[in-house]
Specification:
This protein has 209 residues and is mostly beta strands. The protein is built from one helix and 16 strands. It has a six-stranded mixed sheet with strand order 8-7-2-1-13-14, with no helix packed on it. A six-stranded antiparallel sheet has the order 5-4-9-10-11-12, with no helix packed on it. The longest helix has 7 residues. The protein is globular. The two termini are 22 Å apart.
Length: 209
């Protein structure tokens, strides 16, 4: 749910894909395979060293977390995608298909909760460019652009998740105005590595499977 910002002038980042409920279990962890994907819908390169991800819980004021600032030296051109993935993701599969300048291994100890209520903020130069909400394994969208859990029930859309499948933003919905519409997000069904479905690092479809 992007905040009301001016039309793109300079870099402008949106979440374009999220996998927070992985089924790629190695050593008993279902965190392996989790990732965020972001897209630059602006008209200038985004300097990835100015990007960070912060996490909070709409119903637990004591919870906060961060995946920190991304590495320096990388610029994301307009209309390009960037993958932020778990350190113990089956990385060889990403490494074979996604250049190192388009992905970052965060190597963090805590995964994305698929049992709690979570909010992730995509921050650029200290300004929130986009936010995304999920509860358990389900994506939650407030079609008016409001925050959760204060979103009126009539404006709340819940997309039920499936273990091992990402949620993706339809390619035609990559604008601040469209990305919080009821039909903007879909559940993926395309296999990209054994046990996981999604479109990491590539353009998303414009229709739901």
């Amino acid at each position: 749910v992007p905040p009301d910002l001016p039309d793109p002038v300079g870099p402008r980042l949106l979440f374009s894909e999220l996998l927070m409920d992985s089924s790629f279990v190695v050593g008993g962890s279902n965190e392996i395979g989790e990732f965020f994907e972001v897209v630059n819908i602006g008209d200038e390169d985004a300097v990835m060293a100015r990007v960070s991800l912060s996490f909070s819980s709409p119903d637990n004021v004591d919870f906060s977390d961060s995946w920190g600032v991304l590495p320096g030296g990388v610029r994301l051109p307009p209309d390009a995608f960037y993958l932020i993935h778990r350190g113990d993701t089956p990385g060889k599969d990403f490494e074979m298909t996604i250049p190192s300048t388009r992905r970052y291994d965060v190597n963090v100890g805590n995964g994305l909760s698929n049992t709690e209520f979570r909010r992730a903020d995509l921050v650029y130069d200290g300004e929130v460019h986009d936010s995304i909400f999920w509860k358990g394994g389900d994506l939650q969208i407030c079609t008016s652009g409001g925050d959760l859990p204060s979103c009126p029930p009539a404006e709340l859309v819940v997309i039920e998740g499936t273990e091992g499948s990402s949620f993706f933003l339809r390619d035609g919905s990559r604008t601040p105005e469209d990305s919080n519409k009821a039909d903007a997000w879909c559940l993926s069904s395309k296999v990209y590595v054994n046990g996981l479905n999604g479109y990491p690092g590539i353009r998303n479809p414009d229709v739901c499977p």
